[in-house]
Known about the structure:
Blueprint: E1 7-11, H1 33-43, E2 48-51, H2 56-63, E3 69-72, E4 77-79, E5 87-88, H3 96-107, E6 113-116, E7 121-124, H4 132-146, E8 151-155, E9 158-162, H5 168-176, E10 185-190, H6 196-204, E11 208-211, E12 215-216, E13 224-225, H7 232-244
Parallel strand pairs: 1-2, 1-10, 2-3, 10-11
Antiparallel strand pairs: 3-4, 4-5, 6-7, 7-9, 8-9, 12-13
Helix pairs in contact: 1-7, 3-4, 5-6
Amino acid sequence: MIWDRPLALFLDVDGTLLDISRRPEDVVVPSDLRPMLESTSEALEGALALVSGRSLDDLDRLFAPLRLRASGQHGIELRLEPEGEIAVMPARPVDAALREAVERLARGHPGVELEDKGMTLAVHYRAAPQLGGLLARDLRRLLAREGAEIALCRGKMVFELRDARYTKASAVEAFLARPPFAGRLPVFVGDDITDEDGFEAVERHGGIAMPVGEVHRQSGRTPMRTSTFAEPADVRKWLATLSSTPASKAS
């Protein structure tokens, strides 16, 4: 693939760079991925950002000692410079009553795991996929009763409770408004429904969405995007070409 201008690259993490594990804490970072990301960022003159649902503390733990421009918790956290401070958006937190109610719900179902990211809560049910419908119903009931300002967002085998004003789209927009991203061709690589916000953001700027596997659209008549990559291993192979080739000519 030949690009008409240098890239601004936005990368989801779980299911995109890393193979999904049964539990978020069990993911494995391939030994060559950290140097590959560093080389790719250098090849793009720094115009590479991780855009994840994980917290930035978690991303830094996974990729240490590498620090990249990044967004965490679906746009709530932003680090615009690799060594810069983390800016936390004025998001509505999940309050104590709702948090406690979701914890009780998760404890009541074997195989369901609660991940507290700070400003957001994730309810994972990969180990109990048959519970998806039940969890959706019960979480909506809890939100209707105790968390009217918090949205319920669905991903692959996960429900997230968060302030819906901040998304991967708002993160992309923040990066594109400043160097080294401004003026470049924005590309977003992601694998999940929550990445659709990022896809739509880069497309509004004339950029390219590159889905990993089957990604359902959140709106519109087309139910699913055409895959660019079959799995994270393919994304990593593509990054290896970017890290060694001028961005405008990488394929």
